[in-house]
Amino acid sequence: MNRRESNSATTAPTLADIEAAAARIAGYVHRTPVLTSHRLDEWCTATLAFKCENLQKVGAFKARGASNAVLGLDDAAASRGVATHSSGNHGAALAMAAQRRGIPAHIVMPANAPAVKKAAVESYGAFIIECEPTLVAREETLVRVVSETGAEVVHPYDDARVIAGQGTVALELLEQVPELDVVVVPVGGGGLLAGVATAVKALKPSVEVVAAEPAGADDAFRSFGLGERQPQTNPQTIADGLRTSLGELNFPIIQRCVDTIVTVEEESIVKAMRLQWTRLKTVVEPSGAVSFAALLEHPERFRDRRVGVVISGGNVDLDHLPW
Amino acid sequence: MNRRESNSATTAPTLADIEAAAARIAGYVHRTPVLTSHRLDEWCTATLAFKCENLQKVGAFKARGASNAVLGLDDAAASRGVATHSSGNHGAALAMAAQRRGIPAHIVMPANAPAVKKAAVESYGAFIIECEPTLVAREETLVRVVSETGAEVVHPYDDARVIAGQGTVALELLEQVPELDVVVVPVGGGGLLAGVATAVKALKPSVEVVAAEPAGADDAFRSFGLGERQPQTNPQTIADGLRTSLGELNFPIIQRCVDTIVTVEEESIVKAMRLQWTRLKTVVEPSGAVSFAALLEHPERFRDRRVGVVISGGNVDLDHLPW
After folding, report:
1. Looking at residue B257, which CATH number applies to its domain?
2. Does A56 map to a domain?
3. CB–CB contacts below 8 A, A to B
4. C-alpha to C-alpha distance for A322 and A108, rounded to whole angstroms
5. A50 contacts in chain B (CB < 8 Å)
6. Taking every annotated instance into account, which residue ranges of this chain make up the domain Tryptophan synthase beta chain-like PALP (chains A, B) (predicted)?
């Protein structure tokens, strides 16, 4: 291996970084299974391989990037702990990774975050710092926490270590299903998409990478079309994990490695989610169903092709299902 | 391989029969994944490996036994087709297997069977013969269908070919998780239990086999205790797949190869089902959750042990969830 491995948070990761991440996090995260369904293949007139990151630790691919960031710290930095602001899966993932390494995690959360999300973070022994539910308050609070603790900030997606970790999804998928024509990935902040696209284009450049985004939070679609990063304001989608804006580090990677971004309507997301529950028997959250929704909404694009469909997560409130 | 393989429907299957079944059905059914959860391990103070037959074709282990029976027929018998009476997963499984072999399947179903269950059977191209919703009417109708068609009857559990097929669950589980102390299996008619117990005791006699049964349909528990097969009358359980009585061929196998049968309350079944949905992100039907319910209700029996937990199926109506 003579490709250089970078450990920077701010330089786009290479295949070597993703391979190093895979070695680093092995044993800390699950190698998730790939599920298939003859019925869904018939439905879509395509051959589908669902990569189930909803079966990942903490119920989402976020466990990969967070683990890679935490495990890659040197001992001195690690001893000061890690910090982030998050109301979602990344907070729990970072708390989980920090607990495994035995270092402190400081998670800034809005005071109005759901009790179950706080409980998830607390269950991994992290410190929760509450703040007002605005982005400014979250960022200011995080700066204060870092100045007090010296903790290393691990951003949920705009961080090369996190992107490299998420890219390990693609290493596994290409091993598990060597013959693919196209891979479909949901896009929110772009951590998963940038990592997967980097790995796919390095290993199998002929495989098309398609990103799927809710039409009601289509900043990546617009940014990609305009060639300039557009912010997401007032997102309107059930896919709560995809309401964020594309990251600064993520965007040029996506420009370079992604072939297309397609949008999907809300009703397609719910339909895809329910089909995955009933046919694949797997619990998928709305954000996680956006990739399959792209197949339902744009069938002509995928007809008679071998499609890797990344299911990104499965954290959903069973008492509030969208049907 | 010098162990004799039997192809009889009425002689208890041997390990050789189960191994032959595995070879026969390979490529026709899924090798289902094993899922693990650190959280559920902590919860139970045990090391759990969930064998996910809810991810099997047609959503249940029934695909194995039905496929083994259909694929094992000689061409002359196969050409006359197969028949059964079923209002559940076995009917769909037999229809699926027959369709794969290109032979007719005749499924006797009560006229009041849910439309979705009829649609599932029809979707595999089977003939549905409706009858009054009584066991007598079902059996009489099946006799008539067989006399008219010459089809081979494949009983849902009281059939050695079916038992051998279901036993392939254990071959896979013991390969996937070689170090187990105990295997927990739901019991209804006893096809899955007899097959799994036969394989486990032949391959690893030191592994304990525990059957789990709803307290409201405890004929296997009572039969096992009394040493004589007791019928199930008026079953009261949400676990609709386990309301049936233990089969005639199944009972002596269970007496010989099963170590214990435990019963579980309804609230444990619902709790287990919901925990598997939320923690394992996998859609489990009530019958499929009975094995994990045994761990929740009898924790002392499993403490600090390595436990294989068979999830038997995942066919559930998402519009009528028990919470």
Report:
1. 3.40.50.1100
2. yes
3. 49
4. 29
5. none
6. 28-313
Chain B segment 201-260 residues within 8 A of A by beta carbon are: none
Mean pLDDT of A251-257: 98
Is B253 a domain residue? yes
Which ranges of chain B have pLDDT less than 70? 1-8
ipTM: 0.88
**B27 CB within 8 Å of a chain A CB:** no
Contacts with A205 (C-beta within 8 Å, 6 or more apart), sequence order:
none
Instruction: Kindly state the helix (H) or strand (E) to which residue A82 belongs, with its residue range.
Output: strand A82-85
Cβ separation A55–B321 shorter than 8 A: no
Pairing of strands B152-153, B82-85: parallel
> Which chain B residues are Cβ-neighbours of A284 within 8 angstroms?
281
Say if A258 falls within a structural domain: yes
Q: Which of A36, A280, A323 sits opposite B318 (nearest CB)?
A: A323
Contacts of B225 (CB under 8 A, 6+ apart): B261
Interchain contact, B282 vs A57, CB within 8 Å? no
pTM of the predicted model as reported, rounded to 2 decimal places: 0.92
The verdict on A97 and A244 lying in the same domain is no
Q: How far does A92 lie from chain B, in Å, by closest CA?
A: 13
A203-252 residue pLDDT tens: 999 999 999 999 999 999 999 999 999 999 999 999 999 999 999 999 99
| pLDDT for the residue A1 | 32
Would the pLDDT of A115 be above 90?
A: no
**Residue contact A281–B35, C-beta within 8 A:** no
